[in-house]
Specification:
With 466 residues, the chain is an alpha/beta fold. The protein contains 13 helices and 20 strands. The relative contact order is 0.11. Bound molecules: zinc ion.
């Protein structure tokens, strides 16, 4: 077989076409399994032959990595965790024995920031970089980006591969690329000025950043709906784009539609979890580029369609540093949906709505921060930001306090009503949250602007449990 696949760098579909590759995207799922197995056999055999790590990691595997006969056999290979990647890279810096090419053939080095431990390093070959561009172009096409449309990337250009992934896809597609960046002091004000001047069709950022951009624009007397002209926004890095109220808030603020995307930096092309322009919520799994299985968080056994589990990802066309059966630690639910786009991929219907280890267990009830965000953004009294404080009560019970901002006008009128006014408002927040979460929480009200607005992934959980 021909592995890794080669793509024609000059190919672009007709602008009216719904699909970049109609055959692959709309084929019968059983037929697609054969395409996946074919690529998987190439990928796994290649890693077995070229990576010292996988040679050792699969030594006692119950199946032969050089001759996989079925997807079921593949599912019997061990799951790889972030911790195992860290340990291996520490022992064999910088890439670990994952690297299947000579180090001088590494074309790009990216990685995680390492804010929570040793950073993870990704070495990417030129061929892989081109295939990442190809995959992202195909998925951005589904999102509704077309040649000549301007794509503004308002995210940090650094080790963080998200921004670069968005850029290389937009380049390959033939869009007009506008790599604006983010993170420098005053840059959001400049983003408002530039977006008003350039009027891009599409924005890539995080959902938090988009809301912050809208807020900053209004403060500057700019109407994000009429003065920018964004037609669509595609996001990664946070669950917000599949959180209904957050999605609605962004669509209302800009008069655009929102597309959710993103698996993990390690799995770049990370857009292979990616919605289309028709999908109201969630992400299709582009299974013939990165193969995704959902497994039970405890037993690690496969989860049927319709169930909830942890996505485990596998590269299918990565020659430099392939990740094979990589444990995401995220929580999602998958289903076959009848999307108007006609794609026959499984869909993460609610996007990625939690981390297996972010899930808060409050009085025996599972609580995801994204659910609280959804409830708060659905309240018109909400002031735009919040924090969750978790404390241990009486040694064993966990207590959750939701600190929520209240919008300026509501805060003022509640204040005028005397001390009872704010108390009544607090009780209203508390009751709404209790009904939605099925568990009692404490609520503290804060004036609008109390919490820092983020330009990157929002960190909203403050865990005081020891
Ligand atoms: Zn679709």
């Amino acid at each position: 077989m021909n592995w890794p696949p080669k793509y024609d760098p000059a190919y672009v579909p007709n602008p009216d076409a719904e699909h970049w590759d109609a055959r692959l995207e709309t084929m019968d799922p059983a037929e697609r399994d054969e395409v996946i197995l074919d690529k998987l056999q190439g990928q796994v055999r290649y890693a077995w032959e070229n990576s010292g790590f996988y040679r050792e990691f699969w030594q006692d595997a119950p199946v032969d990595p050089a001759n996989l006969r079925s997807l079921e056999e593949f599912a019997r290979l061990p799951i790889l965790t972030k911790e195992e990647v860290r340990v291996e890279q520490e022992a064999n810096p910088p890439y670990g024995r994952f690297l299947c090419i000579p180090p001088d053939r590494v074309y790009r080095i990216h990685g995680t920031s390492g804010t929570t431990g040793r950073p993870t390093v990704f070495g990417i070959s030129r061929g892989d970089w081109d295939r990442i561009g190809e995959a992202h172009a195909r998925i951005l096409w589904a999102a509704g980006v077309r040649p000549g449309g301007t794509v503004m990337v308002a995210a940090v250009f650094s080790l963080y591969v998200g921004s670069w992934g968005a850029l290389v896809g937009a380049e390959r597609l033939g869009a007009t690329c506008f790599p604006f960046g983010a993170g420098a002091p005053g840059q959001t004000e400049r983003a408002v000025e530039w977006a008003e001047m350039v009027r891009p069709a599409a924005l890539y950022a995080t959902p938090s950043y988009a809301l912050y951009l809208a807020e900053t624009a209004r403060e500057m007397g700019v109407d994000p709906r009429t003065d920018f002209g964004f037609r669509l926004m595609f996001f990664s890095g946070e669950p917000g784009a599949s959180v209904p109220a957050t999605r609605q808030a962004i669509e209302d603020a800009f008069g655009c539609y929102v597309v959710d995307q993103g698996s993990m930096a390690e799995m770049t092309p990370w857009m292979t979890n990616g919605g289309c322009r028709h999908l109201q919520r969630g992400m299709h799994l582009w299974q013939d580029i990165v193969y995704t299985q959902l497994v039970d968080p405890e037993t690690r056994e496969p989860v049927e369609m319709g169930g909830e589990g942890v996505p485990v990802y596998t590269h299918l066309e990565r020659e430099s540093q392939p990740m094979i059966r990589y444990w995401s630690g995220d929580i999602a639910r998958w289903e076959m949906v009848d999307c108007p786009c006609g794609r026959t991929y499984p869909t993460l219907t609610q996007g990625i709505y939690g981390r297996a280890d972010d899930m808060l267990i409050i009085r025996g009830q599972n609580v995801f921060p994204s659910r609280i965000e959804d409830v708060l953004r659905g309240l018109h009294e909400f002031g735009g930001e919040f924090r969750l404080v978790v404390e241990r009560e009486r040694g064993y019970l966990d207590r959750l306090t939701v600190q929520t901002e209240v919008s300026d006008s509501i805060w003022a009128s509640a204040g005028e009503a005397g001390p009872g006014g704010l108390n009544a408002l607090r009780d209203q927040f508390r009751d709404t949250l209790r009904r939605a979460l099925g568990v009692g929480v404490s609520v503290e009200l804060k004036p609008e602007g109390e919490f820092e607005r983020t330009q990157f992934k929002a960190r909203r959980v403050i865990d005081l449990r020891q």
